[in-house]
Amino acid sequence: MRVYLDNCAFNRPFDDQLQIRIRLESDAKLYLQAKIKQHQIDLIWSYILDFENEQNPFEERQRAIEKWKARAVIDIEETPSLLATAHTLVKIGLSAKDALHVACAIEGQADYFVTTDDKLIKKIAPFQAMKVINPVNLVGFIDENGHRN
Hints:
- This protein is α/β, with parallel strands linked by helices.
- The chain has eight helices and five strands.
- It has a five-stranded parallel beta sheet with strand order 3-2-1-4-5.
- α7 (118-124) links the parallel β4 (112-114) and β5.
- α2 (20-37) crosses α8 and α5 packs across α6 (96-107).
- It is globular and about 40 Å long.
- The termini are close together.
């Protein structure tokens, strides 16, 4: 299984853990990362993750997220076809950054694009090229169905 975690997902454990939803999403994201460390899930990284992470004003968070790049099986760089896909995604209502993230996931042949952004999940639902999912739902799917790398 190949996954692409967006910046929202990577940053979730740094959010207010007193809110139950945030706590559940954080735990689910950490579970996915444990599976990545165990080589049971393949992580896709991208240049837009690098760019967004470099904008993070919290240096400790930035360094923690940056370390995941070394665990990725592929690092997606910008290409004309990727930009064309992103342009199509902008036309259906995604922001430029979200479109680039999703286009990178498509380019990396992700099985799942993992995000905690409900608006993004709703907007991308009609676009059949990518399964966009909340980390809690993906963990539930893995728990129910299992998976093989």
